[in-house]
Amino acid sequence: MGMKDKPCSLSGVWSGRFHHDQDGRDGTAFSAWLTISNDRLSGSTLEPNTFTDNDGDELDALLRGHVDNREIVFLKTYRGLDQEPVYCEGEITDEGRRIVGKWYYSWPDEKTGSFEMSREIAKAAPIAQHAQNAGS
Predict the structure, then answer these.
(1) Mean predicted confidence (pLDDT) in 42-71
(2) Taking the CA of residue 17 as centre, how many other CA atoms within 13 Å lie in the half-sphere pointing to its CB?
(3) Mean pLDDT of 4-13
(4) Whole domain around residue 120: which residue ranges?
(5) What are the pLDDT digits (tens) for 82-135?
(6) How large is the average pLDDT for residues 68-74?
(7) For 12-27, what is each residue's pLDDT tens digit?
(8) Is the pLDDT of residue 69 over 60?
(9) What total number of domains does the chain contain?
(10) Which of 36, 43, 53, 60 has its CA 20 to 30 A from that of 68?
(11) The model's pTM
(12) What's 92's domain CATH number?
């Protein structure tokens, strides 16, 4: 199911997985924190260290990009690594609860893959329901 107009706010915590096109692995899980303001995206990610011998079990990266209707585009820049940023582009679906896309880096010997991110949007119960539950 696609979105009708603009999605609800995309700001918040997301869970995701990225895949390398050249291998058949299940992918690598990551967490992302997104902030969207005036269609500009900023944020960060945290993921297991699967591709460098640097100290540490996890890698974090900064995100910068933009959102245009159902399209999201951003650069992912790993902190503390001498590596060019990863270019990511995707589509926002499920009324702003899912993002699916592709990533690229290392031109001209380009490495590519796919990613997906999702989140649950919590809805507050009406105040009357809270009062009723407190009295039970």
Answers:
(1) 90
(2) 6
(3) 71
(4) 12-135
(5) 889 999 999 999 999 999 999 998 877 788 999 999 997 766 667 665 556 666
(6) 96
(7) 999 999 998 766 567 8
(8) yes
(9) 1
(10) 60
(11) 0.79
(12) 2.40.128.20
Confidence of residue 1 (pLDDT cuts 50, 70, 90): very low
Token digits of residue 25:
């692995």
Q: Are 71 and 89 a contacting pair, CB within 8 Å? A: yes
**56 part of a folded domain:** yes
Which positions ≥6 away from 89 have C-beta within 8 Å?
71, 72, 73, 101, 102
DSSP state of 97: T
Tell me how long the chain is: 136
Please, are residues 7 and 29 in contact by the beta-carbon 8 Å criterion?
no
* Residue 122 forms part of a structural domain: yes
Tell whether 83 is covered by a domain.
yes
The answer as to whether 38 is a domain residue is: yes
- What letter represents residue 18's amino acid? F
Both tokens assigned to 85? 């940023």
Burial zone of 134 (CB within 10 Å; 0-12 exposed, 13-18 middle, 19+ buried): exposed
One-letter identity of residue 76: K
Structure tokens given for 28:
């690598």
